[in-house]
């Protein structure tokens, strides 16, 4: 994986890393200042606490799939602005900014590939595009990926990292929760495996819908997963939350996810899970 040998040429996609002259990064979990090249050569794990730094979509594909097997679908599907939404700037201008920044039309990438030689359909949220927020195009692309999985009878893997629903699309965004949940129901009816992989962070309407509907739900260590943020919850209930609340480890302890998997073991783990699910189905 050649990308592990190269340091990033830009700041972290999620804005969590403080890069000092391109040589050092600050871990957002343990606050240690670590040598960037050491992080890069170790699957982007913090050498002190093993916090999993963010991966780009392309890095994630390289990590999970067999080399040169990924084929992207529906790359030109782009959002409209039926509400004429304006906050600090018009939605159309915001979209253009993120499209130029990421080189993508929206925050979801779908396609097909192989994992240990076995075909699967995969969908990946791109957090760089408006925080991986789920609007009409994200929901539509997930549904089209599911349709492809149904047609080919291949399993579906969704890699989630999102701030939740995209407020600039109003109810059109919120309806994607029901739309994607209905698509997953079709997978269940066809007895096709659906694995959900939760990465840091996965929040809001994405957590409240498709991300938590997997036959098997995996998460990366220390990933923040929830609906509302911890500060919002504390202000609402007027109580201090338990230590580690909304971290993957807390969710595993309380039965909300099935397993926490270190990044170096992800490809093998997904392959084993798919093999067992395919046999059971």
From TrEMBL:
Q: Which Gene3D superfamilies match?
A: 2-enoyl-CoA Hydratase, Chain A, domain 1
Zn-finger segments (C4-type): 27-49
Q: Tell me which cofactor or cofactors this protein depends on.
A: Zn(2+)
- Subunit details: Acetyl-CoA carboxylase is a heterohexamer composed of biotin carboxyl carrier protein (AccB), biotin carboxylase (AccC) and two subunits each of ACCase subunit alpha (AccA) and ACCase subunit beta (AccD).
- Its recorded name reads Acetyl-coenzyme A carboxylase carboxyl transferase subunit beta
| Record-level Gene Ontology MF annotations | acetyl-CoA carboxylase activity
Native species = Candidatus Nitronereus thalassa
Q: What is its main location?
A: cytoplasm
Q: Which reaction does it catalyse?
A: N(6)-carboxybiotinyl-L-lysyl-[protein] + acetyl-CoA = N(6)-biotinyl-L-lysyl-[protein] + malonyl-CoA
Q: Which InterPro entries match?
A: AcCoA_carboxyl_beta (IPR034733), Acetyl_CoA_COase_Trfase_b_su (IPR000438), ClpP/crotonase-like_dom_sf (IPR029045), COA_CT_N (IPR011762), Znf-ACC (IPR041010)
Q: What is the lineage of its organism?
A: Bacteria, Pseudomonadati, Nitrospirota, Nitrospiria, Nitrospirales
UniProt gene name: accD
**The protein's annotated pathway:** Lipid metabolism; malonyl-CoA biosynthesis; malonyl-CoA from acetyl-CoA: step 1/1
Q: Which family does it belong to?
A: Belongs to the AccD/PCCB family.
UniProt-listed Enzyme Commission number(s)? 2.1.3.15
Residue numbers binding Zn(2+): 27, 30, 46, 49
Indicate the segments forming the CoA carboxyltransferase N-terminal domain, all copies.
23-281
- Compartments, record wording: Cytoplasm
User: Keywords, A to Z?
Assistant: ATP-binding, Cytoplasm, Fatty acid biosynthesis, Fatty acid metabolism, Ligase, Lipid biosynthesis, Lipid metabolism, Metal-binding, Nucleotide-binding, Transferase, Zinc, Zinc-finger
Q: How is the cofactor bound?
A: Binds 1 zinc ion per subunit.
First-tier enzyme category under EC: transferase
Q: What job does the chain carry out?
A: Component of the acetyl coenzyme A carboxylase (ACC) complex. Biotin carboxylase (BC) catalyzes the carboxylation of biotin on its carrier protein (BCCP) and then the CO(2) group is transferred by the transcarboxylase to acetyl-CoA to form malonyl-CoA.
């Amino acid at each position: 994986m050649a990308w592990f040998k190269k340091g990033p040429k830009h700041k972290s996609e999620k804005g969590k890393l403080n890069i000092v002259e391109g040589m050092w990064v600050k871990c957002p979990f343990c606050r240690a200042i670590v040598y960037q090249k050491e992080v890069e050569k170790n699957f982007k794990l913090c050498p002190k606490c093993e916090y999993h730094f963010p991966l780009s979509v392309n890095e994630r594909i390289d990590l999970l799939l067999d080399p040169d097997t990924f084929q992207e679908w529906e790359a030109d599907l782009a959002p409209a602005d039926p509400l004429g939404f304006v906050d600090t700037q018009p939605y159309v201008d915001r979209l253009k900014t993120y499209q130029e920044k990421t080189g993508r039309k929206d925050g979801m990438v779908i396609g097909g590939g192989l994992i240990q030689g076995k075909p699967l359909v995969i969908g990946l949220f791109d957090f760089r595009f408006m925080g991986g927020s789920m609007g009409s195009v994200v929901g539509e692309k997930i549904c089209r990926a599911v349709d492809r999985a149904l047609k080919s009878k291949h399993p579906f893997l969704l890699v989630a990292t999102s701030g939740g629903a995209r407020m600039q699309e109003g109810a059109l965004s919120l309806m994607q929760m029901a739309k994607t949940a209905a698509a997953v129901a079709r997978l269940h009816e066809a007895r096709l495996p659906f694995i959900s992989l939760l990465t840091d962070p996965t929040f809001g309407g994405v957590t409240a819908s498709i991300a938590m509907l997997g036959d098997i739900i995996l998460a990366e260590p220390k990933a923040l997963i929830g609906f509302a943020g911890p500060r919002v919850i504390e202000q609402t209930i007027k109580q201090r939350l338990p230590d580690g609340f909304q971290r993957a480890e807390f969710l595993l302890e309380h039965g909300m996810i099935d397993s926490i998997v270190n990044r170096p073991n992800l490809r093998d783990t997904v392959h084993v899970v798919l093999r067992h699910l395919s046999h059971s189905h």
